Amino acid sequence: MIEVKDLSFSYKGRKRIFSDFSMQLGGGIVCGLLGRNGTGKSTLLNLIAGLLTPSAGCVECNGVNTRLRRCDVLSGMFFVSEEFSLPEVKLSAFVDCNAPFYPKFSRDDMKSYLDAFELDSNVSLAGLSMGQRKKVLLSFAFATNVGLLLMDEPTNGLDIPCKGQFRRALSMYMSDERSVIISTHQVMDVDNLLDHVLVLGNNAVLLNETLARISSLVSVVSCGQVPGDAFYSQPSPVGYYAVVPRKDDSETDINIELLFNAVISSPALTEYIKKGGK
């Protein structure tokens, strides 16, 4: 479990990003971390990973302050940052150097993920394109088999076929014992793999729910006219898409991009979900 307690943080000379900010995330989820630019998504991931020091409060992973950078905590998490660099060495040398820090690292799994990304396990990191380097880093991240995997814009730099490869690799990694938090603006790259959404806005958690609970409370409908009880609507090729209270047992897929737009536009929707449809 991740628990953020009364967290405050700001970069030097800049507006405060978090102030008395608190939230919780349970285990065994694939969570989409969403928000407008500047709401602190990347900062939150860095704070969870213990890479930044809050001015007040703390982030705990399974009851341990992550800023302590304890070996037993760090060996159970991996952070794929949007901006990264890899040494210009053979992949085998990179693995030999870094794998010992992760007790559950599997070379067989690494080979499987490299195969999924159509990469040679004997590749040299020198001279690789940014997209190829991203695939190497993702393969290593998945092969660590950590309990908490943090990813910041993991599909940036990947072409369309590679995004499909990423989804297959992530589905291979997922299990009830692992949690994945993905910060992304490219929601459509991962929306069919998410089971939880966390939406940030204005130093607050706008939404922190499972998609199963959301879909039990609201529906997305395609309509010619906007229903009177719609929380949110936007034009579609045949009229409108609208988010409305769920009225029967019929299930509809929740379009996460539409849901995000609805959440940041309609406080009434977030209150309705938080209160369980009341």
Structure description:
The chain is of the alpha/beta class. The chain is built from 9 helices and 13 strands. The chain has helices spanning 41-48, 71-74, 91-98, 107-116, 130-143, 160-173, 211-217, 256-265, 267-274, and strands at residues 2-9, 18-25, 30-34, 56-61, 64-65, 77-80, 148-152, 179-183, 196-201, 204-210, 218-223, 232-236, 239-245. It has a 6-stranded mixed sheet, with helices on both faces. Strands 2-1-4-5 form a 4-stranded antiparallel sheet, with no helix packed on it. Strand 7, helix 6 and strand 8 form a beta-alpha-beta unit. Helix 4 (107-116) packs antiparallel against helix 5 and helix 5 packs parallel to helix 6. The longest helix is centred in the middle third of the chain and has 14 residues, at 130-143. The protein is globular, with a radius of gyration of 20 Å. The mean pLDDT is 92.
Spans where pLDDT lies below 50 across 5 or more residues: none
Quaternary state reads single chain
Can you count the helices?
Answer: 9
In N-to-C order, the SSE pattern is: EEEHEEHEHHHEHEEEHEEEHH
Number of strands: 13
The biggest beta sheet reads: 6 strands, mixed
Radius of gyration: 20 Å
> What's the overall average pLDDT, rounded?
92
Distance between the termini: 28 Å
In helices, the fraction of residues equals 25-40%
- Write out the strand line-up for the largest beta sheet, numbering strands in chain order: 6-7-8-3-9-10
Shape estimate: globular
Structural class: alpha/beta
Strand content: 25-35%
